[in-house]
């Protein structure tokens, strides 16, 4: 995990599979698809040996434009079964040598293919509990999840864990793929039993929209084509579901949000605020407000590499020039006046713990939001999710891959939203202040007031102190606010590393 976690992902940057062999984007992507009806991002989940790699490999084999020599090579490298060659579909997606040797998926890989009407981006995630953090990373980018269950084994502990992480990451649409139906004699009764068990789990997550599909990944039954072995099933095939599922299109009615990533100047008086719009839209002439300072201005121009625009919407990277030169920089969030993000230094959160080491009150931590970062002054774990019952238990331990509810306080207010309303500005990463490694990913459940009652035991680091000392070299007028905040954060980290509680006063 890198310290510079990508905005919009609560865990960090995905590691793309750049291997130019089978299963890599270069081998499966079609050059262009101008007529396709949107893009849908699918993440594969499930326990080890439930057949994720085989399912995705079969999907690529049946539905993607693999070249003849690729198919021939796969057949040549696959073992014979009863004297006949059957492709080892998992080799299309298990690109790492270690994955092929162990027969498990370790890292996240991207695969692409086009159906008749849609482009599908597959985020192939590992199923082993040891690599749950990799699965959680991929989930933060997905529109739909396929949760595989072995028809023989049924629901497992890791199935529950993955379902909880999908809910935490905001994935609301799930395909329950009951795989290896051929090994249970294509039994409708067995399929119904597993679907009934899953429905009990799904009740724990009221926003979940799920569909169960019986499949045999090895034979391709109900993957791209309907299976003659299961005439009792009348629902969609796997591909039909993907073609009909709604994508995450930009919602023009959402309140505008744009986290500021950097400030651009041309030396001739131009000052632009660069960032990616994460919600809503903005037009030239619209009034915008900074969530932290509550300063307002109007949009004078919207600039891109391809020229000026009259308006921009969610997903576009733009540079906004404001009519007034208000003092905001990286970490600030522009929003609609009256509907801004909250400036908060206290919030309730749900976390997935990624580090092998548990939480330590003696170590320094930082919360990294969309484009801002602030030292953690307090982190109290309220409860932990029991993976067997999916009930929250009063336990104060953070272990690798555990899901926790926590109360977090930071040294200064951050511009945050509730994750349910604005996923991009309602998600964050907790990083180790010394190593920069990601220790947890989280989402905001509730926000408290920005004004925190100062603890008598905490040292208050004021702006006046910094102006007289460490930041005395910064210009008084038009100073670099981002550099000022960076230095303040560094001082706070040193204090905490020395065991001194510190709070950054406004």
Number of helices: 10
* CATH fold call of the largest domain: Rossmann fold
Overall morphology: globular
CATH C-level of the largest domain:
Alpha Beta
> Could you say what the CATH architecture of the largest domain is?
3-Layer(aba) Sandwich
* Poorly predicted spans: 1-35, 95-106, 451-456
Structural class: alpha+beta
Beta-strand content: 25-35%
**Sheet having the most strands:** 8 strands, antiparallel
Terminal-residue CA separation? 32 Å
Mean pLDDT: 78
Q: How many separate domains?
A: 3
β-strand number: 27
Output the CATH homologous superfamily of the largest domain: P-loop containing nucleotide triphosphate hydrolases
Q: What is the radius of gyration computed over CA atoms, rounded to a whole number of angstroms?
A: 25 Å
What fraction, in percent, of the residue positions are helical? 10-25%
């Amino acid at each position: 995990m890198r310290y510079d976690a990508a905005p919009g992902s609560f865990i960090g940057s995905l590691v793309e599979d750049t291997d130019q062999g089978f299963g890599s984007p270069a081998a499966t992507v079609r050059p262009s698809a101008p007529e396709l009806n949107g893009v849908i991002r699918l993440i594969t989940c499930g326990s080890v040996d439930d057949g994720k790699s085989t399912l995705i490999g079969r999907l690529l084999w049946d539905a993607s434009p693999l070249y003849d020599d690729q198919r021939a090579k796969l057949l040549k490298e696959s073992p014979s079964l009863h004297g006949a060659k059957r492709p080892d579909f998992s080799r299309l997606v298990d690109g790492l040598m270690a994955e092929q040797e162990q027969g498990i998926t370790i890292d996240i890989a991207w695969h692409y293919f086009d159906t008749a009407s849609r482009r599908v981006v597959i985020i192939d995630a590992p199923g082993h509990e040891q690599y749950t953090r990799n699965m959680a990373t991929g989930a933060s980018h997905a529109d739909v999840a396929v949760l595989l269950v072995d028809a023989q084994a049924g629901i497992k502990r890791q199935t529950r864990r993955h379902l909880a992480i999908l809910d935490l990451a905001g994935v609301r649409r799930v395909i329950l793929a009951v795989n290896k139906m051929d090994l249970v004699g294509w039994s409708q009764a067995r399929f119904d039993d597993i679907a009934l068990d899953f429905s009990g789990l799904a009740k724990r997550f009221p926003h979940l929209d799920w569909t169960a599909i019986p499949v045999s990944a090895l034979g391709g039954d109900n993957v791209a084509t309907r299976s003659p072995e299961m005439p009792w099933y009348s629902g969609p095939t796997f591909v039909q579901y993907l073609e009909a599922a709604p994508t995450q299109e930009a919602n023009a009615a959402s309140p505008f949000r744009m986290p500021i990533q950097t400030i651009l100047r041309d030396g001739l008086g131009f000052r632009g605020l660069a960032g990616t719009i994460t919600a809503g839209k903005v037009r030239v002439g619209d009034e915008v407000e900074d969530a932290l300072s509550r300063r307002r201005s109007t949009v004078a121009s919207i600039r891109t590499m391809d020229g000026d625009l009259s308006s921009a919407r969610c997903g576009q990277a733009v540079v906004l020039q404001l009519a007034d030169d208000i003092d905001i920089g990286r970490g600030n969030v522009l929003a609609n006046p009256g509907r801004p993000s909250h400036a908060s230094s206290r919030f309730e959160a749900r976390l997935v713990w990624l580090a092998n080491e548990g939480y330590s009150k003696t170590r320094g931590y930082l919360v990294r939001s969309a484009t801002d970062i602030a030292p953690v002054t307090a982190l109290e774990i309220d409860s932990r999710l029991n993976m067997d019952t999916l009930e929250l238990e009063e336990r104060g331990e953070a272990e690798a891959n555990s899901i926790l509810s926590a109360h977090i306080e930071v040294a200064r207010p951050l511009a945050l939203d509730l994750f349910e309303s604005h996923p991009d500005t309602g998600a964050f990463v907790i990083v180790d202040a010394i190593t920069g490694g990601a220790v947890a990913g989280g989402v905001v459940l509730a926000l408290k007031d920005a004004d925190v009652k100062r603890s008598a035991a905490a040292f208050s680091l004021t702006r006046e102190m910094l102006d007289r000392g460490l930041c005395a070299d910064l210009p008084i007028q038009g100073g670099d606010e981002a550099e000022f905040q960076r230095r303040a954060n560094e001082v706070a980290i040193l204090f905490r590393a020395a065991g001194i509680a510190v709070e950054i006063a406004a």
